[in-house]
Each structure stands twice: as C-alpha cells, then as structure tokens.
Design brief:
The chain is of the alpha/beta class and 462 residues long. The chain contains 21 helices and 14 strands. Strand 4, helix 4 (88-97) and strand 5 (101-105) form a beta-alpha-beta unit. 39% of the residues are buried.
Length: 462
C-alpha cells in the first residue's frame, strides 16, 4: 500500500486552516500547515509534499505570485488554488499558468476531497475515481462508527442513502469547530435537523440551541428579536428584552431562511459576527455575546447577491462551510425507512405498508421532500383502520401511481447506457481529469461528480 500523500496547506486564516487540516487528516492525508508564502517556502524546503493547497490571499505575498515563483524554480508539485468567488477569473488564469485546479470559497468539502483525489490520481489504483476519500480513505468500519455515533445523538435520524452518509461525514468534521455553517437545500429537506445534529456533536452541546425563522418574523420586530431592546425603546416596549443572540449565549443560534433577512439588518448581523458584540435597540452600549451561528436557506444566495438582495461580505462571513442537503428524490434509500418511522410515530404502534403502497412511495418524486412525506404518512395513518397502509390511504397524487405502475425515479442518480458511455469516453480522452471531462461534456464539474457517484453505486460488487 502506498504511504499517505502529504499535502502542504497554505491558508492565513487560523480557524479555516485548522478546520481544513482536520478534514484532510480525516481522509487519511498527512498535512503540513503554513500561514504565509514564506512559511510555505520553508515547508517545501524541509519536507517533500505531494500536493499544495494554496490560498490566493496571503499576508506577505499573493498565492498566485507564489505559484509563479514555484513554477520558475522548477517545482512541479500539483497546486490547487483556493479563491473567493470574486476572484474566479483570476483563478482560471492561474490554472493556465500552471495550477492544477482551483476551488471557489466557501469550500465544498466533498468537492475538495474529489479535486485532491484527481490531482493525486497517479497515487491511486487504475480506475479508482476517489469517491470522497483520501488515498487510504476511511475504512468502512470507521465510517460506520462515525455515522452510528451521530445517529445516537439525534434519535430518529435516517441515513441509509449514500448522499446522506456523505452529509453526516462532513458534519462529523465540521461539528467540533466553532466556525459558522451555512446549510443549503430545498424546503422540507431537513436543514434544521442537521443544525441540531451539529449542535449536539459540538463542544457547545451543553448550551442552548435557539432557532429563529427570518421569514416568519415581522420586519419591524426582527431587529429587536435578534439583538434585544431596552425598556421604552419604542412604543409597546414595556420591558427590556434580551434577544436571541444573548438567549443563545454559550450555544448555537440557528437562523433559518437567512436569505429573507432584510437588507438593512444585514450589516448589523455581519458586525455582530465579526466583533462578537451586539447593541440592543434603544441602547448605545455594546454587549458581548458568545454564540456559534448556523444559517440555512433554500435560496441561491449568489443569485441574491447579484440581484442586490444579499450582501456579499455577509455571505462569505456566514458561509465558511456549506452543507448541501439533497432533495428526497436523490436519496430513495431513505424513503421507506422514513415512512416507517413516521408511521410508528403517528400510529403509536407497528404499521406496515402494503407492497403496492411502498411502490407508490418509491415512485413519487416528493417535491416537498421529507416534510411532504411526513404529512402523507400522517394522512395515511389517520385513514388506515388496521395495521396495513394501502395505496388508497395515501394522498391522491401518490396513490395514482398504483394504477400507472412504478415510475422511474426523477433522480439523476440512474444513468442511461448512452450517458454512461459518453462519460467514460470523455474521462478516457481527458486522462481521468474531471474538470476537462466536464467541459467536454458541456456540464459543470459538480454535475459530473454526482454522475460518477451514481455510476459507481450502480456498478456490481466485485
């Protein structure tokens, strides 16, 4: 077996560097850390590394300038550039100048693992596509132990699908740190549940988790709800209020639907996160707060930024780490376990689904995700007079599939023969480079990653 690859991580922000180092260690890599270009050069001088993970913005020298220095010195070590969204054009230019690849911040840890595996492809066995694992990777028993530990922290958590297992593996890495997390995903996919899991797996688990829905509070009261107010601060303020920031002290503040936060409050939230201080409405004295922020959204915040409805600086402050939850249609292995769990909850006894009802559940596309499935099972339990749920007990649009027969899932997870052949041919032509293959296929690299995972999962066990 090859020795674990050694990665030089060049990142000037200590919290992000520590988080990335922990993640790389969890994948089986050795890590050498550097907080500046000078430290990076020292690290290269004192040890041989297999890959350099290089931030663009460094305190003493641009990462792109350092890249130029390395290439002029004849250093051929693969370099993956990390850059903020606004610097993508510059990063693309850097790839042309000798970088192996680039990643936009905030980093997607799943994508980071795959990009590193691509760059280190010559260390992997032929045909290994490196699905979110390092050169040694987590053993199956280690990964299962990690997931079992997280499931024990949140009874009722269902995680049978590969998509959700990947989410939980990222949660295990992110939870012990104190960095902000942005959870994105469609409505009803379970974003608050993942926030609760991060809280329970973190050092702040003994503290409170306070949740607020930014879309559910009147705009006129939202500032007071978040930051508190003094007595008499406005009409109706008969007594002082501490606000959610102080109520969450020592724990986690979960802001759901952060994309709905009014534009005029966004600078105040940004300042609170940067200074760890808030100023209650009606007061001129800042108050220290100690919270970890987890935010969630079903909106594309980059599009919101471009439309002028969300501040770019707040986006980057919130989105140190992003967790993307898949829609239920992309995790079909979870549908029946979730349905059985909901049936047990609502019926208070063991209730089973007839084969036809189970087929209906699996065939339906579930646009409302887990929340819609829960409501459908609740309805079925109310209408079912025995211990077997039949298709007629399900909502009409779901039960209708019993007559038409099971439909192929709307998930992109199943690939047709032509699509499979095209992907394999593009990868072969591009020497296994996913970025080049995605360009050749006319799709994004992330879309190709998901298709490769689906292809791997469809392969028969050898």
């Amino acid at each position: 077996m090859n020795a674990p690859a050694k990665i030089l991580l060049v990142e000037d922000e200590p919290a992000q560097r520590r988080l990335l180092a922990e993640f790389l260690h969890s994948l089986g890599y050795q890590v050498v850390e550097a907080g500046s270009a000078a430290e990076a050069l020292n690290g290269l001088g004192s040890s041989c590394v297999d890959l350099i993970l290089l931030d663009v913005r460094l305190p003493d020298q641009s990462g792109l300038d350092l890249l130029g220095v390395l290439r002029r010195q004849g250093v051929q070590t693969p370099v993956v550039i990390m850059t903020a969204y606004a610097d993508l054009r510059q990063a693309v230019s850097a790839v042309k100048q000798g970088a192996t690849d680039y990643l936009a911040k905030p980093l997607d840890l799943d994508e980071l693992a795959l990009v590193i595996a691509d760059a280190l492809a010559d260390r992997l066995p032929a045909g290994d596509w490196g699905d979110a694992a390092g050169p040694t990777g987590q053993s199956a028993s280690t990964a299962k132990a990690t997931i079992d530990r997280l499931k024990s922290l949140l009874p009722g958590l269902v995680c049978e699908s590969p998509a959700m297992r990947r989410v939980l593996q990222t949660v295990a890495v992110v939870a012990p740190s104190d960095v902000p997390v942005l959870i994105s995903g469609p409505t009803g996919s379970g974003k608050e549940m993942i926030a609760q899991l991060i809280h329970r797996a973190s050092p702040r688990s003994a503290g409170p988790m306070v949740a607020a829905n930014c879309a559910g509070l009147p705009e006129t009261l939202l500032e007071s709800e978040l930051f508190g107010h003094t007595k008499g601060a406005f009409t109706g303020a008969d007594q002082a209020r501490v606000g959610l920031f102080r109520a969450a002290s020592g724990g986690v503040l979960f802001l759901d639907e952060i994309g709905e936060l009014p534009l005029h409050l966004q600078p105040k939230l940004l300042r609170a996160l940067e200074t760890r201080q808030i100023t209650p409405v009606g007061s001129d004295r800042p108050v220290e707060v100690d919270i970890r922020l987890i935010a969630a959204t079903n909106r594309n915040l980059v599009e919101q930024i471009q439309a002028g409805r969300f501040r770019e600086d707040l986006y980057y402050r919130l989105n140190v780490i992003e967790l993307s939850l898949p829609p239920l249609v992309d995790r079909p292995e979870d549908i029946l376990p979730l349905a059985r769990q909901f049936a047990q909850e609502f019926a208070g006894a063991t209730v089973r689904f007839s084969p036809q009802a189970a087929e209906c559940l699996l065939a339906y596309c579930w646009p409302g995700n887990v929340r819609q499935l829960r409501n459908a099972v609740h309805r079925a339990c109310l209408l079912c007079r025995g211990d077997v749920i039949l298709p007629e007990h399900l909502p009409p649009q779901v039960a209708a599939l019993a007559e038409t027969g099971p439909q192929p899932p709307a998930s992109p997870g199943r690939l047709g023969q032509l699509e499979r052949a095209a992907i394999l041919a593009a990868l072969q032509e591009c020497g296994g480079n996913r970025t080049q293959a995605a360009k050749k296929l006319g799709i994004s690299r992330r879309a190709l990653i998901y298709k490769l995972r689906a292809l791997q999962e469809e392969e028969p066990a050898s």
